[in-house]
Amino acid sequence: MLKLLSRVKSLASNRDNVPRGTTDGRSHIDGVPDELAIEIDADGSPITVHEADWFVCFVPGLQRQWWHRFANAKHKHVFALRLVDDDTWLLVEPWWTRLMVSVLTLDEAIKFLRWGAAGNILKVREAIPGRGSQARGWSNCAVLMSFLLGRSYWTWTPNGLYRRLIADAHAEPVELTQFLSEHFRSVANRNADQALKSLPSRTEEPLDEVLRGLGTSVMRAMMSPSAISLYKAAVSDRSRFKDAAAAYWTFGPKRAVDRICEVLEDAQRRGEVKVDDCALAARQFVAMLRGNLLLEIVFGLRASPNPVEIHVHVMSVVAMFLRGACPVGRARMRSTSASHTSGSSPGSDSAPEQTFTCEQERSRHDGLAIERDEEPRKAVSLRATLRKYLFIPAQIILRCQAQAY
């Protein structure tokens, strides 16, 4: 047995002498076909994997188990999370019956991080290729996490693994509130940059075109998967992580509101709109863009809108917004309702454009209101005449009214 172990150790020490690929496209290994003769890196992998940081969570149990009496009160279980991108986390959690590897969204990952905050969270840099060993015997959660991180620790308890990692030079404690605040700020700021960076300062473009471009960019950023997860996390955990929710608003929606407010203030100086409070109008414009779409997506009633749906929605919002913001007598934006009704694509020239002024819009609205009110007024006048001149009994009048409705 000792000779076998020494032989294995000798082979491991001479790992740099092992051939790491092929130069002539042939395998040169018995039993391995030439089709598998591919280049590999120094660790024997077809690709080079860079070391990543894992959030290792040492947590109390959620359900009572018989072995909990033998474990540390706060470290009865251990699992790991890894941030893949703004909206994607990788979860590795050992169970009794399996090793669960799942992909989570941000709001789902926060639930596990909250569980981790009940104990301790360590941010640990994994080791590649690592120094772990499969010959560890009983593979419980602590052993599997040690193997995942490439550590050769001989410990079988979560608390024992925690004590070894806390002394590791590549591990550091994580304060969840501070981490989430910084993460929310970073993601919200990045989404806002993508939405606003492509919008130059206005020169001579019509106001409706500027608002359409701005609204489209804001809608795309607001309906992206990362923004949806950020919104859900900020709303659901507002009471627990107030700084994170505040960072989401300050570096996300508020930046969009401020940019729209600047556009409206410039339009007001040009005499194109007349609003009492540009900041309030900007918030209302963003609320109109959001509409019910955001709630429907959050509740899982629909998927994120595609570019065509975003275009149609923004056109409708801008038309409705300017209908109430433009001063009396000033030219209004063009209506494309005819093209939408005929089924033509947005931007096509098949349908004639119609231009309305504010006075014409108000006249059309008032005319429709008068037409809608005409019939009830006639009915009221007729009933009054019958009561006054014909002295019809009250019961008959009530019966006629019931039949009329």
Describe the overall structure:
The protein has 405 residues and is an alpha+beta fold. The chain folds into two domains: 53-174, no CATH class; 177-344, Tetracycline Repressor, domain 2. It has helices at 2-13, 106-117, 141-148, 158-166, 176-196, 207-222, 225-236, 242-251, 253-269, 278-290, 293-298, 307-325, 337-341, 358-390, 394-404; strands at residues 53-59, 77-85, 88-94, 99-104, 120-125, 171-173, 331-335, 354-357. It has a six-stranded antiparallel β-sheet with strand order 4-3-2-1-5-6, with helices on both faces. Strands 7-8 form a two-stranded antiparallel ribbon. Helix 2 packs parallel to helix 7 (225-236), helix 6 (207-222) packs across helix 12 and helix 9 (253-269) packs across helix 10 (278-290). The radius of gyration is 33 Å and the shape is elongated. The relative contact order is 0.06.
Q: Write the element-wise H/E pattern from the N-terminal end onward.
A: HEEEEHEHHEHHHHHHHHEHEHH
Sheet of most strands: 6 strands, antiparallel
By CATH, the architecture of the largest domain is named: Orthogonal Bundle
Round the Cα radius of gyration to an integer and report it: 33 Å
CATH class annotation of the largest domain: Mainly Alpha
Termini separation comes to 99 Å
Shape: elongated
Structural class computed from helices and strand pairing: alpha+beta
CATH superfamily of the largest domain: Tetracycline Repressor, domain 2
Strand content: 5-15%
Amount of helix? 40-55%
Order the strands across the largest sheet as they lie in space: 4-3-2-1-5-6
And the CATH topology of the largest domain? Answer: Tetracycline Repressor, domain 2
List low-pLDDT spans.
Answer: 14-19, 328-376, 388-394, 400-405
Count of DSSP-assigned helices: 15
Number of domain units:
2
Mean pLDDT across residues? 77
Question: Total strand count, please?
Answer: 8
